[in-house]
Amino acid sequence: MIETAKTEMFRNRLVKVFKHKSKLAKRQEVSCYRVYDHDLPEFPLCVEIYEDKIYLAEYLRRHGMTDEEHDAWLESCLQVIAAVTGIPADRMYVRQRKRMSHRGEDQYEKMDTKQEFFTVLENGLKFQVNLTDYLDTGLFLDHRITRQMVRALCKDKRVLNLFCYTGSFSVYAAAGGAAAVTSVDLSKTYLAWAEDNFVINHFKDPEKYRFIHADVMQHLKTLPPNSFDLVIMDPPTFSNSKRMKDFLDIQRDHVELLNDALATLSADGVIFFSTNFTRFVMEGELIKATDIKDITNATTPFDFEGKLKRWCYRVRKGNE
Known about the structure:
By secondary structure, the chain is of the alpha/beta class. It is 29% helix and 26% strand. Helix 5 (188-200) links the parallel strand 8 and strand 9. Helix 1 packs parallel to helix 2 and helix 3 runs parallel beside helix 4 (168-175).
């Protein structure tokens, strides 16, 4: 492959970040991690390793190339990534992603119909990922540390995972010895995926592990006090799904969501709350908690340092 000056620049950057991150991944026994995320403006790509495969997402932009020129550019990128990582192009899954406007986006949008699922390991737990069919792969790599925090706190606790997606937090809670884990989501597809993640980890007790198809905002209001000890909440920034009674705007609605979740908790209960809304402002004075701690930095994995576009908080109810 004859490299242009720009392609060589991309190679040099990829060599540098891959050398650094692959060492840290090996040291921490992490097999799924992000290598590159739009480090260079001319290469608006996200490159993630899922064990022996690569998920490559290209952020859509006005690149000014013809289709043929773009295909050639992308092929040169694939060759560089293969040479640097040692993972061949036939094990790369290429997607095109819109820049999320968080307005009117359907987080459950299905992109393809290949239904190729792979099982990967994270901290000794198994998760099914899909690198072709959906906007996301099924495992949010940026919450690797947060999941560990939840696992460490779950022994004998009643855990509620809201907007549970594919249930990775729920699996960690079950692995941490939770007394019960309830997972709630509006998508039947993702709930079924979450159940599959439970099955492959041999968590099969329907009395302990429940999966509820519901609009979270409405469902929360039906829960009695002292129903749970720990709540995990990682909502979309915005959702106007036709299946919802009202649309969700996380900046507008986070106070109500958190207060409703706090009302379901035991006296010393805890909420882990996360949002991808970069301009998010926590209105702590309106939330009925004794302590709200920003744990964004503490939950940032090595492969997202300086690149993380989400917030994370630990909210304590405390004794009243």
